[in-house]
Amino acid sequence: MKRQFFAQTSLAVSFITAMVMVGLEVSPWVALFSLGLLIWKWGVEKFHWRNLSRKVTGGLSVLLLAQILVQYRTLIGQDPSYTFLLGLSALRVMDYENERDHRFLVLLGFVLISIKALFSLDIYWIVPSGLAFAGLWYSLLSPELPQRGKILLKVFALSVPGAVILFFAFPRFVLPWAMSRGEATGQIGFSEELNPGRVAELAGVANMVFRAKLSELPIKSSQELYWRGSVLMNSRGLSWRPGMLGIKPRSEAEVDKPTDKHYEVALEPHANTFLFVLEGTEQVQLELGNSFSLNASVFRSARPLMTTTVYRGRWNEGSMDRQTPDEEYLKIPELRGQVADWVNATKEKHPTPAARIEALQAFYQENDFTYTLNPGAYGGANELESFLFYRKRGFCEHFAGSYATLARALGIPARVIVGYQGGRYNPMGEFWRVSQRDAHAWVEIFNDGWQRVDPTQWVAPLRLVIGAEDFFNLSEEDQKVFARDIQWRPKAGDGIPLWDRVGFVMDDLNYRWTYFLVDFDRTSQKSFWQSLIDLKLQLVVGLIFVAVLCVLIFRSLFKNKGLLSEEQVLYHAVLSWGQKQDIFPEEAETPLQYLERLGKEHPSKKAILRKVSEYYDQKAYAKKPLSGEGAKILTEWKEASRN
Predict the structure, then answer these.
(1) What's the Cα-to-Cα distance from 207 to each of 210, 407, 434, 438, 469, rounded to whole Å?
(2) Under the phi-then-psi rule, with left for phi > 0, alpha for psi from -120 to 50, and beta for the rest, what region is 28?
(3) Is 90 exceeded by the pLDDT of residue 403?
(4) CB 452 within 8 A of CB 226
């Protein structure tokens, strides 16, 4: 008889839960493909739709593989593996019809849960992963086996000590095939280029980038938080590209000074080596792996950051990059039209660098620019003129890119910094949460050292004052009207809303959990075991106590009931009652004989004992499938034995 997938409730719910967890990470096309196959399978089983043959599902598997190779150029990495496993899972559900298919789906479900845990440490997935894992195991147990839940609980309880020992004692390692997402951009989407609209595209989503603890730093507001990711040196007008920064020479700056402060960052996975640091950071130390420093205060990891990474930054308030710029920092493309006219007029009117810098600021303050996430597309031979003198609509990258190009045209060395600005403070966990919405671009000019200039503060200072999240939650009309009013605030109720409080607590809990897992490296393992060894006698006594306690708990909870069949459970319940009445089985006495003797000595229980005897005879000896009947008789016996 063919099995039906949706009739196996435990398997169906658990397997679909595992598919959903992976489906949230893949391209929409494969998620819709998998959903369509599940709906088709449901229609086949409920409404007798025509099922797909195994030849068809096999052909679809080959097409799925080909599509992944075309899209990702590889099968190695997070996104290709997620995509292939999800599509393959849906196709295997279509083929489900026997015990062999059942076991294969369970195995595939375990793989889906494991690969989710491999790439995501978020605490939010513990509950659905645990329930799906337990449900898959439960579906493997025979329906004829009584107390399946208790057996499963026993297996899990016995496995906990081994799992704890493996976590605290087993060396940590990185799987080589897990070191790539299989795409050019990572989960946080950061790119080392500045194209009109690129930063706005990043800021249009709310994915978290990193969390940072700044308890040692004298920073009180998000306005002071400029997280540099990369420095761009090659100007193309509005667009900018990175250049060769070079490795920063080792110096005394790598040694802690009394005035130095420290902060910690937990960075989400991405496909590159960017380390986002505060201005004033002089050194970075990763908890796992190595980092190196480039010129222009840029830091990189020695390997792609494919898992959540914790690093520690050493910060000095008076630190400044004083490296003298070369001619590369004055190169610009040929300027045309009104842009060239404005540059020439400004040079003639303002002969000194200081005066030209003031003129630049006045240009952005007085020309009615609009700060928006939707500036429209820029292109053509003179996109810089189009932005500065006609459309005047842009995001931070438009203002930063154009400002740096104009500064160079006026003889002022300049470069563009891309990274993040601000963040949202979590008062529960006392850390800053920086998301994609905080993506930002600003400028540095050289004036006895590289100094920050952020044109956004002249065009939309409210964005910097209230933060990106609150600013972009406003309507476009409110953004335009209040962008320059730094005193204005969105209307809010008294205190922190309940929903925000819940969000803060959950984010704090997730941060602590992630930090614990990431920070528990080989050094932490050695320290943990060394501290236990130092305890010596207390450790031995404690381990003995825990072992004895575990044995007693397991014996009292489980005994051997989980291994008994339904009729044996019923017989043992009667036997336990009879022994309390000082009626014990005689040597070589069969269960049926014992039940008959027990009924003679207790006539009031004779009817229910006869029912127990008949059930035991049919189930144990005649091997009749009486599933569920024993539980009913057991309930009747418990009622009768109380009287």
Answers:
(1) 9, 34, 9, 10, 11
(2) alpha
(3) yes
(4) yes
